[in-house]
């Protein structure tokens, strides 16, 4: 009888260890995902805010000095078009720091391009992004 009880106990122990391991892995993934999401969201917000602020100031200033609205493909539908992560089908091996760096470069290049194109027409200070 003692052998059966010991075998049952070992079986329960193994199941508990497997469940604990599985839960630990799952919690680690969730924690890492949340941390990466928070970091990406913060950087994305900074970039989006800088672009929106510059775009708004540019359009308002242009409207004050010109009769027509400012029409430029660079100012149309920029929200998803500049995302450097969205085109990726598989993000399982995505390095968050590399993705943020690429996004920052793209956003900065976009702002610099707008600024270069309109610096003679409107006097707006280029916002600082990271």
Q: In brief, what are we looking at here?
A:
With 130 residues, the protein is mainly alpha-helical. It contains 2 helices and no strands. The longest helix has 64 residues, at 2-65.
The tally of strands reads: 0
Strand content: under 5%
How many discrete domains?
Answer: 1
Globally, the shape reads rod-shaped
Overview of this protein structure:
The protein is mostly helical and 130 residues long. The chain has one domain. Helix 1 packs parallel to helix 2. It starts with a helix and ends in a 12-residue tail after the last helix. The model has no long low-confidence stretch (mean pLDDT 77). It is found in: Cytoplasm; Nucleus.
List keywords for this structure.
2 helices; 130 residues
